[in-house]
Amino acid sequence: MNVLLYVRNSPIKLIFISISKLIEKSLEKIKITKVIEIKSSKNNLQIKRDPIKLEDVIINLIANTIQEMLDEGKLGIKIYKKENFRIH
Question: Which CATH fold would you assign to the domain 3-77?
Answer without folding.
Answer: Heat Shock Protein 90 (3.30.565)
